[in-house]
Amino acid sequence: MLCALVQCAGVPQQPIPKTLPVGWCYVDAVAPLVRVDLKYTGHDNFVGRPIAGYTGGKRAILRRDAAEALACASELLQKKGYALLVWDAYRPAVAMKDFRAWSRTKDDRMKAKFYPNITKQGIYDGKYIGDVSEHSWGIAVDITLVHLNDGSEVDMGGHHDLLDVSSATETSLISAEQQKNRLILRDAMQKVGFRNYSKEWWHYFLTDAHPCYTYNFPLDDTMTQMPSS
Known about the structure:
Blueprint: E1 24-26, H1 27-30, E2 35-36, E3 61-63, H2 64-78, E4 82-88, H3 93-103, H4 111-114, H5 120-125, E5 140-147, H6 176-191, E6 194-196, E7 203-206
Parallel strand pairs: 2-4
Antiparallel strand pairs: 1-3, 4-5, 5-7, 6-7
Helix pairs in contact: 2-6
């Protein structure tokens, strides 16, 4: 995927804009069946606190083409008794800088849950996190399945951001049923144009999406959406 990146090194978090960028939307406006639990707005993540850029919003944001593809995946999965749950979507560039700054600290309080078998540097060396991300382009989601009838999470054999070899989409380290569940998600997402990152069963990005630019505005639930063309 060829993407033109706007370099954000040294760029501080931007003020909250009044409108979303042209061609962007709140996920719930396009894919109302998709559920959202943004992990980086709270403390249940590998850093253990709200991440820079996430403190003002609970609604997921994406480029409209990605949100529309997600809506199609949601409809496919609904027929099988599942709904989608988004853990992360658009991620401000300042969040990536926050991750990197955290990696240089001695704070390891979330290690046992999120990166039990590697060091903080190992998170980067293992390419679980980088300094840029498709999330900051508005075309990526961290996502899982929930049961449509009661909203309970489907057993995927691991939780969001378990930065470990067992989180590879295809692995012998989980049960056959857990592997089947991961592939149900992957099959549905691939059918609508998303590609999975093989080291993280939850991470998907829209393949036919370019040009891609890095954005840095913070999440907020009150921005106006520009009408779709």
